[in-house]
Design a protein that fits this description.
It contains twelve helices and 14 strands. By secondary structure, it is of the alpha/beta class. α3 runs parallel beside α4, α3 packs parallel to α11 and α6 crosses α7. It binds phosphoenolpyruvate and manganese (II) ion.
Length: 340
């Protein structure tokens, strides 16, 4: 619940209320404001009700947070969260673009990709070293060797790097090399992974499960915040529908809705949503119009030879065209207003 304190309440008085909340085994939040201090109390509804904050002399109002997710809800935190990955901000008024291949394959491929996407304006480099593949016989990623290449190339091109972690036991290893941990669609509800990734303190890119509802996705984000890490970027990457002409179906409803309901930034992965490169640019522009804070796009210097997801990967000239159209680094809203 959200507890608004009366104007003039001192820090000491607020602290007393906070200890009262915590003494009940509840989680407390302290949000000082210029006019009014706001406290949050999270936990079992029955315990909360027994505290009777509504009749406390220092309390102006008490509002229950009705959504099942609390820390990620906009009610609890009205302002947009901006997540920082090195120099790249996600969630501010600039449109962030993360680009790179599905899988790290070798040094040369990563160097060529990084050089091209950085010149075009990408703010971070992606590349998978641990790959969640449908077939156990498909390329599973280069593992730690791939992480080393990604780190080295990121450093050479001064780009923060994003890569997937698939297992709680890999978190420490991946953290040695990555600036942001990606939790993939297949692992969105791997709760021990969510907790372990949260505890690492690294910013987390939380992809939506292909069969997950918006509420399930936000509850997964709640696990990460509840474990102490507020730096979560949501990623809509397409959901499974009856339509088989494309790999998945991009759910732009979800982009608009999570912006209404949460303070967390949301970006779009048009590559996995479409599965086909010809759709990637139009879906990216649609995502920008729908209010996404950025994109994560698969790019390969020679998509025909890619070891995974070649059909949906842009080549470098196609990415440069996309980047020019979304103008990374300029103000997204202003850009839409002038219709460029
Ligand atoms: C990926 O980013 O390469 C990937 C496997 O994504 P997803 O988890 O969205 O399928
Ligand atoms: Mn991929």
């Amino acid at each position: 619940m959200i507890i608004v304190l009366k104007p003039g309440t001192t820090k000491e008085q607020a602290d007393e209320l906070l200890s009262k909340i915590e003494a009940q085994g509840l989680k407390s939040l302290y949000m000082p404001g210029s006019e009014r201090t706001v406290l949050g109390a999270l936990g079992d509804e029955r315990v909360l009700a027994k505290l009777h904050f509504e009749s406390h002399p220092l309390v102006e109002s008490v509002t229950p947070v009705l959504a099942p997710y609390k820390l990620v809800s906009r009610e609890m935190h009205p302002h947009d969260t901006v997540v920082q990955i090195g120099p790249l901000s996600i969630g501010g008024d600039r449109f962030a673009v993360i680009a790179g291949p599905c899988s790290v394959e070798n040094h040369e491929q990563m160097l060529e990709t990084a050089r091209g996407v950085k010149a075009a304006g990408a703010g971070a480099l992606r590349g998978g070293a641990f790959k969640p593949r449908t077939s156990p016989y498909a390329f599973q990623g280069m593992g730690e060797e791939g992480l080393k290449i990604l780190r080295d190339v990121g450093d050479k091109h001064e780009m923060p790097v994003v890569t997937e972690v698939m297992d709680p036991r890999q978190v420490d290893l991946v953290c040695k090399y990555a600036d942001m941990l990606q939790i993939g669609a297949r692992n969105m509800q791997n709760f021990s992974l969510l907790r372990a990734a949260s505890r690492s303190g690294k910013p987390i890119l939380l992809k939506r499960g292909a069969g997950a509802t918006i509420e399930e996705w936000l509850m997964a984000a709640e696990y990460i915040l509840a474990e102490g890490n507020p730096n979560v970027v949501l990623c809509e990457r397409g959901i499974r529908t009856f339509e088989r002409a494309t790999r998945h179906t991009l759910d732009l409803n979800a982009v608009v809705m999570v912006r209404e309901r949460t303070h967390l930034p949301v970006i779009v992965d048009p590559s996995h949503a479409a599965g086909l490169r010809s759709l990637v640019v139009p879906l990216s522009l649609g995502s920008l119009a729908a209010g996404a804070s950025g994109l994560i796009v698969e790019v390969h210097p020679d998509p025909a030879s890619a070891m995974s997801d070649g059909a949906q990967s842009l080549d470098l000239p196609m990415f440069a065209d996309l980047a020019a159209r979304v103008h990374p680094g300029r103000h997204a809203r202003a850009r839409l207003a002038v219709g460029s």
